[in-house]
Structures are given as structure tokens and as C-alpha cells.
Design goal:
globular; 11 helices; about 40% helix; eight-stranded mixed β-sheet; binds NADP nicotinamide-adenine-dinucleotide phosphate; Rossmann fold; 14 strands; Dihydrodipicolinate Reductase, domain 2; alpha/beta
Length: about 325
């Protein structure tokens, strides 16, 4: 598969590494807003062509695009790529709103193209293991999913700079960046909640620094916590009446332990080499392109739609806003 890359941050490098390792991906071109950054990224990552003009990038012979730009760019760039006939795998959150996602997916469907969110949770082998393991811990009454990671950009923010990640105009902040990783397992493992409550604390920039959401299912409560201004070391937990599952990384689904009712532990989610992590989503993406009727593709679409609608509700409850007067960014 001949890929074009949009965005020249570290995450694009991780995707390239994983896609090359797992699928032998041909990373054929990169789009950057500046020739300087584009050339530096291309030479570091062995990419033959650099474009600074989106139209020429999309007129080239690339077949698929991986988008790793700030969240606010995902919708217009996804739309442009799909309209140009390219398959798209776009970083999380795939779009800001459900309506934007539905619009892009409709374009993809009408052209027989694949459009997916680059969310590790849905594609890592750990997902199936986790789902299977839930059957052995009895009745589940509560779960806590946490992704709290002190941002490397926070010192710059405190110095008065305006990094994208703390700039609401980029549709970023703790919830969009990290909270999404907590929403995915909740929806995938337990379905849609009957009630959602949520709140956040905000920086002066208007970005949410950290927050919590409570998802009420009739038989269980699922708590989501996320922060970019504090570091968690205790991970995520799922509590049943016959056992407990503890997971160190809910985004990568690695380092998971199951405790039985006696407290004896078994490793259920082993570590995965960093180079492979983003290769799983590239593998699924390429499989969906070969067979657009793959059941997992339909599942990814359905889960993304549910997750985006829950995210809209959590943002509404928490007062997380991006545009001047609305949530549409
Ligand atoms: N899957 C994961 O584990 C993971 C991890 C981190 C981030 N992400 C996601 O990846 C995406 C990018 O995150 P990031 O932290 O790399 O973002 P970023 O550094 O703010 O921007 C990424 C790239 O987009 C371009 N860009 C920057 N500002 C822009 C602007 N105002 N308008 C248009 N393009 C701009 C830049 O490339 P040029 O200057 O070369 O154009 C930059 O290298 C986000 O959606 C984030 O959620 C995912």
C-alpha cells in the first residue's frame, strides 16, 4: 500500500515504524505546511517525496493517507483525502463531532473507500484477550479507566507559550487527547450507559486540564478519569465478584493482571514491543481495504459512532468547548 502522511510529529513516526514492520507499508510521500519540516521528516524517515501543497499531494499516486495533524484539522483533511479517492486512517479523535464523522464515512462508503480512526484499543490483540478475561471475574459491579499523563508540553504552557495541546482552538485538551482512551473500553466492553455525568477543571487557556466522567449502567458504575497536568501510576481496574483485572496502560492494553478471588494473579496482557504497537491498526486498515465487508470494519465504525456520541455528551456535561459559541470547532 502506497501511503501519504499528513503531519510530521512523533506519532507519525511511530505509525510509519509499525506499518512498515507489520505490513511492509510503502511510505511514499509526506505533506507538511513547510518544506523545511517536510524535508527533515522525509530524510529522517526515508520518505522519497515531500509536498507542501495539499492538492498536489492528493493528485499524486498515493492510495492511502494517515492523518496525524491537530484534531481540528481531521475533519477537513479527511474529507479532502476521501474526495480525492484515498483510503484514510486518521488519528484519534477521528473528528470532533459525530456529524463530521458521519459525513466523512458517507463519502468513503459512496466511493468504496475505507475510513477508520487510528485508535490502538480497537486493533491491539489485547482487546480480544481482555474481552475473554471478563468472563472469568464474575458479575462486574464497577470499573475505573484512567489515562492521566503529565504533559511534556505543560512547562511550555506555564511559561506562557501556547502549545496546540492546551489550545481549545485546536479541539484538544485532556479529554480529547486522553479521555477518549477511557471511553473506548467502556463502550466496547459494556455498551451504551443509561446515564452520563461528568466534570472538568480548566486552564486559563480554556482547555480542560483534567476531568472525570461517571457512566451509569443499571448493574455497574464505570468511572473515567483523565489528566494532562498530573501523572497516574496505578492504572485501570475492572472489579467482579470473582476476580479483578488491573491494566497498567489502557491505551495500549499492555501489562494487565487478573486476580482471582483468593488474590492469586495471572498475567493476561503482556507487554508489546513499542515498534509493533501502531502496526496492528495498519494491519487491520489494509485488511479492510482488501475486504471492505470485513466484520471488524463494521464493528470499528459502529464503535466509533457510539464513542463520539458519548464524547459529545461528556463534553456537554463538563463544559468543554472549542469554538467561540459552539462545540463544532
Ligand atoms: N495514537 C497515539 O498514541 C497518539 C499519540 C499522540 C498524538 N496522537 C494524535 O495525533 C494527532 C497529532 O498530535 P500531535 O501531538 O503530533 O500534534 P501537533 O504536534 O500539534 O501537530 C502534528 C503535526 O500537524 C501539523 N500542525 C501543527 N499545527 C498545525 C496547525 N495549526 N494547522 C495545521 N497543521 C498543523 C505539524 O506538521 P507540519 O508543521 O509539518 O505541517 C505537526 O507536526 C492528534 O490528533 C493526537 O490526538 C495520537
Amino acid at each position: 500500500m502506497k501511503y501519504g502522511i499528513i503531519g510530521t510529529g512523533w506519532i507519525a513516526e511511530s505509525f510509519i515504524e509499525g506499518a512498515r514492520l507489520k505490513c511492509g507499508a510503502d511510505i511514499s510521500a509526506v505533506y507538511s505546511r513547510t518544506a523545511e519540516k517536510g524535508n527533515a521528516f522525509a530524510s529522517k524517515n526515508g520518505i522519497p517525496r515531500v509536498f507542501t501543497d495539499m492538492e498536489s499531494f492528493l493528485a499524486s499516486d498515493i492510495e492511502a493517507v494517515y492523518i496525524a495533524s491537530p484534531n481540528v484539522c481531521h475533519f477537513p483533511q479527511s474529507k479532502m483525502c476521501l474526495e480525492a479517492g484515498k483510503h484514510v486512517i486518521c488519528e484519534k479523535p477521528v473528528t470532533v463531532t459525530s456529524a463530521q464523522y458521519a459525513e466523512c464515512k458517507a463519502i468513503a462508503d459512496s466511493k468504496g473507500l475505507v475510513y477508520i480512526e487510528a485508535i490502538m484499543y480497537m486493533h491491539t490483540p489485547g482487546r480480544e484477550i481482555l474481552r475473554e478475561s471478563l468472563n472469568s471475574i464474575g458479575r462486574i459491579s464497577s470499573a475505573q479507566f484512567d489515562f492521566s499523563q503529565l504533559s511534556s508540553k505543560y512547562p511550555a504552557y506555564l511559561r506562557g507559550e501556547n502549545p496546540n495541546i492546551f489550545n481549545p482552538e485546536m479541539a484538544t485538551g485532556a479529554f480529547m487527547d486522553l479521555g477518549i482512551y477511557c471511553v473506548y473500553p467502556a463502550i466496547d466492553l459494556f455498551g451504551m450507559p443509561s446515564k452520563i455525568t461528568a466534570d472538568s477543571v480548566f486552564l486559563d487557556s480554556g482547555a480542560d486540564a483534567s476531568g472525570s466522567a461517571l457512566l451509569n449502567y443499571s448493574d455497574k458504575l464505570v468511572t473515567l478519569t483523565y489528566s494532562k497536568t498530573g501523572q497516574d501510576y496505578s492504572g485501570s481496574k475492572i472489579l467482579g465478584d470473582e476476580g479483578t483485572i488491573c491494566i497498567e496502560s489502557i491505551s495500549k492494553l499492555v501489562l494487565g493482571l487478573k486476580f482471582d478471588s483468593e488474590g492469586a494473579q495471572t498475567v493476561i496482557l503482556p507487554d508489546v514491543p513499542k515498534a509493533e504497537l501502531m502496526g496492528f491498526e495498519a494491519e487491520d486498515f489494509e485488511r479492510f481495504i482488501r475486504n471492505i465487508r470485513d466484520d471488524k470494519y463494521a464493528l470499528c465504525d459502529e464503535t466509533t459512532r457510539k464513542v463520539l456520541s458519548v464524547m459529545e455528551k461528556i463534553r456537554e456535561c463538563s463544559g468543554i468547548r472549542f469554538g467561540k459559541d459552539d462545540n463544532d470547532a
